[in-house]
Amino acid sequence: MRVVLADSAVADLESIGDHIAMDSPERALRFLQLLRVRCLQLSDMPRAFPLVPRYENMAIRRRPAGDYLIFYRIEDDQIEVLHVLHGARDYEAILFPAS
């Protein structure tokens, strides 16, 4: 199964990279590479990570990656990474604004 990053996930990664690069551009590149690898590894076992509690009906799962969470949805022929957010953020307000 192939993994695709939604525009929102790409924007998240750019923001994460920009923030880390203020202190260390090299560290930012290494960390972004790690996050991308974690995203791509979802294709190995897409159901290995749990659905977001209280929002199971939306079929969004989350995978931890250090202090970050990768939010994704399994579709018919692909895995769509929706967001990559720091675990301290209010991800519910970002993922489920109408709830």
Describe this structure in words.
With 99 residues, the chain is of the alpha+beta class. Strands 1-4-3-2 form a four-stranded mixed sheet. It is 36% helix and 26% strand. The mean pLDDT is 95. It has three helices and four strands; from the N terminus they run E-H-H-E-E-E-H. The protein is globular and about 40 Å long. A hairpin with a 3-residue loop joins strand 3 and strand 4 (78-86). It has a single domain, classed as YaeB-like fold, CATH 3.30.2310.
Helices and strands, with pairings:
Layout: E1 2-5, H1 7-21, H2 25-40, E2 60-65, E3 68-74, E4 78-86, H3 91-95
Parallel strand pairs: 1-4
Antiparallel strand pairs: 2-3, 3-4
Index terms:
single chain, globular, 3 helices, 36% helix, alpha+beta, YaeB-like fold, 99 residues, four-stranded mixed beta sheet, 4 strands
